[in-house]
Amino acid sequence: MMKWLVVLSALVAFAECFHKFPLIKGKTARQDLQEKGLWDEYRKQHPYNPMAKFYQGGSEPMTNDADLSYYGVISIGTPPQSFSVIFDTGSSNLWVPSVYCSSQACNNHRKFNPQQSSTFHWGDQTLSIQYGTGSMTGHLAIDNVEVGGITVSQQVFGISQTEASFMASMVADGILGLAFQSIASDNVVPVFDNMVKQGLVSQPLFSVYLSSHSEQGSEVVFGGVDSSHYTGQITWVPLTSATYWQIQMDSVTINGQVVACSGGCQAIIDTGTSLIVGPSNDINNMNSWVGASTNQYGEATVNCQNIQSMPEVTFTLNGQAFTLPASAYISQSNYGCSTGFGQGGSDMLWILGDVFIREFYVIFDSQGQKMGLAKSV
Questions:
Q1: Which of 143, 209, 267, 338 could crosslink 249 through cysteines, CB 3.0-4.6 Å?
Q2: Cβ-count burial of 254 within 10 angstroms (0-12 exposed, 13-18 middle, 19+ buried)?
Q3: pLDDT class for 71, splitting at 50, 70, 90?
Q4: Which one is catalytic: 88, 173, 193, 365?
Q5: Active site residue 186
Q6: pLDDT computed for residue 166 by the predictor
Q7: Which of 250, 270, 282, 354 is catalytic?
């Protein structure tokens, strides 16, 4: 009898461990616009501005990244209304479109209807997102939010009333931020913080696996680590700031030569940015080292035939080396090949986006204020 009790308690403990949340690897806005022949026009109107969401004081972050491809489906309210959202470790608020919005971007996305939820309450503040190419305005609301089998009760979130036009090209309806409360608009408690506060996860950490070429298999694990997604040791890197998931980067090297971030810099690991983004001079240097030439939109293109012979690029974080082969930093499409190194970062902050995260499984430990990185399988 005793033996069975031990087995049962072990099974219960295992069941509590973590909640896997599948991410869909869908079509990007770029792919959709290219197929419709509208990409060149879109890029002229909406230049890539990856830093826009990091410059805001107290307002909600947005993104115009046309290459984001990972989305998850959550539901809000009673009975549940479903939305696809970008899980964004570079921002801290949750927001979705609402029935009170008549912007084009709302009309081609799912809209939340408060009147259809018996658990809905209005919040007491309005919300605005300033953006280089427009803005989003809305209102705070309170309702139950279900994410991968976990129901967070009384979560404060934003519902939009107007949205910038570029959001019409995004696949996702909204954004779910996974950074810290210190940068949340209106000081709203983020969804993951509430999971921890409400005792819905067994550990105050989550981890992210992004699949590379295969369409599916990507996931966020809330409350734990899925060891099937990585190989070898986990390297832990302390946060330098608990705002974004920010760490010390010592240098970027190619063939042993420092090509960027000379003397050290700060970097954030951001699932809501598709590329690796840094200051223009550094990025131009990296792109020239790998043999890329820059087109009229500032995108660095390469001859697809040359990928085999292109060098590895090493990012040294807190004394540990993380190396990307060319197969990881070059993206191939029907329209040619380009590098995953984008201009537009600030001298203060690099963004290690999906190009980096596809190669390394990332554990985001909010209580320990550190990140774990391991080679993705």
A1: 267
A2: middle
A3: very high
A4: 88
A5: no
A6: 84
A7: 270
Please give the Cα distance from 134 to 234 (Å, whole number). Answer: 41
Q: Which of 78, 119, 86, 113 shows the shortest CA–CA distance to 97?
A: 113
Q: Which tokens is 37 given?
A: 């022949």
pLDDT for residue 114:
98
Q: Average of pLDDT values for 225-230? A: 94
Residue 88 annotated to the active site: yes
For residue 152, is pLDDT > 90?
A: yes
CA atoms of 237 and 247, how far apart (whole Å) = 7
Kindly indicate the confidence band of residue 65, based on its pLDDT and cuts at 50, 70 and 90. Answer: confident
CA-to-CA distance for 312 and 329, rounded, in angstroms? 9
**Phi, psi at 260, each rounded to 5°:** -165, 160
CB distance 210 to 357 below 8 Å: yes
Q: What is the pLDDT of residue 133?
A: 56
Check residue 59 and give its pLDDT.
Answer: 62
Which tokens hold the place of 196? 């921890």
Q: How confident is the model at residue 7 (pLDDT cuts 50, 70, 90)?
A: very low
